Amino acid sequence: KFSISGKNSEIFITAKNGNFISDEKILLEDDVKFKSKEFQLTSDNVVFDRKNLVATSEKKAKFLSKNTSIISRGFDITENGNIINFKGQTVLTIKWIFLNLYSFHAF
């Protein structure tokens, strides 16, 4: 478990397994999670570059936030977690909330 500091909040990274593939890169496997106050991103296989604070995955990924979910075939996280680019076929679901506001006037 470790974290990176994004623009607005810290992103915590967890995985069941992790192995160094070089001095700077770690292969994270099995239930990899990137979690902040604003979102959660999960995948089963992610390469994290500790030096450049960049993460990449070519496996199915699921992004969840307050009213949005994204399912893709991979992602790149750059700019200390401030930018996430989704790869391949991607499905975006946005929950729309409609509010009916009525104004009542008593005479």
Feature tags:
mainly beta, 107 residues, 0% helix, single chain, 11 strands, 57% strand
Describe this structure as you would to a colleague:
This protein has 107 residues and is mostly beta strands. 0% of the residues lie in helices and 57% in strands. It has strands spanning 2-5, 10-14, 17-20, 25-35, 39-49, 54-57, 61-65, 68-72, 75-78, 83-86, 91-94. Strands 1, 2, 3, 4, 5, 6, 7, 8, 9, 10 and 11 form an 11-stranded antiparallel beta sheet that branches. A hairpin with a 4-residue loop joins β9 (75-78) and β10. The protein is globular, with a radius of gyration of 18 Å. The mean pLDDT is 86.
Short note summarizing the structure:
With 107 residues, the chain is an all-beta fold.
Report the portion of residues in β strands.
Answer: over 45%
N-C termini distance:
62 Å
Contiguous helical run count: 0
Mean pLDDT: 86
* Sheet with most strands: 11 strands, antiparallel
Radius of gyration: 18 Å
Order of helices and strands: EEEEEEEEEEE
Helix content: under 10%
Q: What coarse outline follows from CA principal-axis ratios?
A: globular
Low-confidence stretches: none
Topology, number of strands: 11
Helix/strand-derived category reads mainly beta
List the helices and strands and how they pair.
Elements: E1 2-5, E2 10-14, E3 17-20, E4 25-35, E5 39-49, E6 54-57, E7 61-65, E8 68-72, E9 75-78, E10 83-86, E11 91-94
Antiparallel strand pairs: 1-2, 2-4, 3-4, 4-5, 5-6, 5-7, 6-9, 7-8, 8-11, 9-10
